Amino acid sequence: MKPRIGVIGASEVNTEEYKTAESVGKEIAKRGGIVICGGMGGVMEAVSKGANTENGLVVGILPGSRAKEANDYIDIPIVTGFGQGRNIIVVSSSEVIIAIGGSFGTLSEISFALRLNTPVIGLNTWNVSEQIIKSQSPLEAVDEAFSLIDSTRRTRMR
Amino acid sequence: MKPRIGVIGASEVNTEEYKTAESVGKEIAKRGGIVICGGMGGVMEAVSKGANTENGLVVGILPGSRAKEANDYIDIPIVTGFGQGRNIIVVSSSEVIIAIGGSFGTLSEISFALRLNTPVIGLNTWNVSEQIIKSQSPLEAVDEAFSLIDSTRRTRMR
Amino acid sequence: MKPRIGVIGASEVNTEEYKTAESVGKEIAKRGGIVICGGMGGVMEAVSKGANTENGLVVGILPGSRAKEANDYIDIPIVTGFGQGRNIIVVSSSEVIIAIGGSFGTLSEISFALRLNTPVIGLNTWNVSEQIIKSQSPLEAVDEAFSLIDSTRRTRMR
Amino acid sequence: MKPRIGVIGASEVNTEEYKTAESVGKEIAKRGGIVICGGMGGVMEAVSKGANTENGLVVGILPGSRAKEANDYIDIPIVTGFGQGRNIIVVSSSEVIIAIGGSFGTLSEISFALRLNTPVIGLNTWNVSEQIIKSQSPLEAVDEAFSLIDSTRRTRMR
Prior knowledge:
The structure is a homotetramer of 158-residue chains.
Chain A: E1 4-9, H1 15-30, E2 34-37, H2 43-53, E3 57-62, E4 76-79, H3 87-92, E5 96-100, H4 104-115, E6 120-123, E7 133-134, H5 138-157
Parallel strand pairs in A: 1-2, 1-5, 2-3, 3-4, 5-6, 6-7
């Protein structure tokens, strides 16, 4: 199975956050990873667009009940109809989480990840636990993500 | 409809937190409120026990798929089978939230409440937003909760 | 814990189905049972109204994200925001199901009940399994429901 | 977006059903469709295996909370942790459903599809509505599925 990286962040973002998320998406796709996201706007759109540019695969786990609510760069819309309840599926389906900025929806996802022992890499995000691995750039964050998946998978094989 | 107050907190607690939660449950029941909680141990059990002592009604929104997993003081078990996904139902079903201490599960609930504009009253809990109303005692917290429900309901009637 | 009886059926009903559901609600309340339903109109409203007349307790497990969407006779709205996904919670939270008429939503609930081995009593409903206990009147259905809960609880105690 | 076809059926199957599901998976993959399924055994495994043989993409929407519970042919595990509650996500995420045999879990999915107006093509499955399009072979079923998606998409574009 290809590595699955969840990318989370607010649906309303500034230009810098948008660019950061876009770069994260590009880097994940370049290395053959699958982007898992919430499928909507802001960070979710930016990371999808970035991955799309590099022919990456993007899964959008949608809150609403229609596939067409997805942003334009989603390859596989998962239509939950569970509203914010879909946040836990974004987290549970990812091997590692990259959090970019974010508001309370993002904080709920970070909380679930920490609760479920899914590693969280933070790019200028909520600072609620020392378990969050702070990263300074998209490249560094994606490097860290692939490295974590690699070591986790190897541990499980033993 | 009777006021519905969600009480959240960790499943593993120290003696002080247990007593605080128990007092919160008693006070809610004395004033005719319904306790909504996650139905399991720790803060959830303590608030249920407190309300039970005063013949209050306690709803436990359970993560698992069996009613018998509920603690001994739950009057109405809601069996979701949705794991931590049930956290959002605890929040959405409550008119106001009282958070007592808590770990990452509690933080996910606080995040959902802030996301959905449900007021959060905190007793020594996560300090992630100025919107959380800090309270110093069970009595003060429950007073504040009923007062908030009262004013919200009146606003909606206008 | 009081017996919890789930009552399911369509949101659009004819006069006869409405009366049947209302009688079922009355009978459950008279015997001290809790009505669990989907909280909306049609059969859900009728059973809630019936129970309400006899001062029974009614839980409405709502598909939407607002408590005020509940019908006028709901005592405890459980706000899921999970759309039709809430159907499984109606079933899982009930010790026995009484199905009255119904369309595809009701069929999904009957299916879940049969899948989870929750007994289903049918009043002129879907005929998809011999496991569905056919009943001829509200009184008979409620008698059967309490009798089933009684024997199930006794079996578990042994 | 590639066509998304949900394939549903029991987790315990006989040899004939397994072969039918495998053929359905192959045909979907040959035409560039994505298989959506429940990710577990029986029909779900067979359709995944078939699609995998033809290098198709397979999404498994899992009931449990671990990706490794997926069958060996899942490319993208969606980890819901929602138990049978995940059935509605299988349906909502698909443009058309092919039902093969099946027990009560499958019936819950057929019910949801009929409730949500998602077309259902049946291969020797539950006969609960005239809306279910009966099909005689895997090839015919997949032909019908692509044809339905094609016409639905064109209608929405107008």
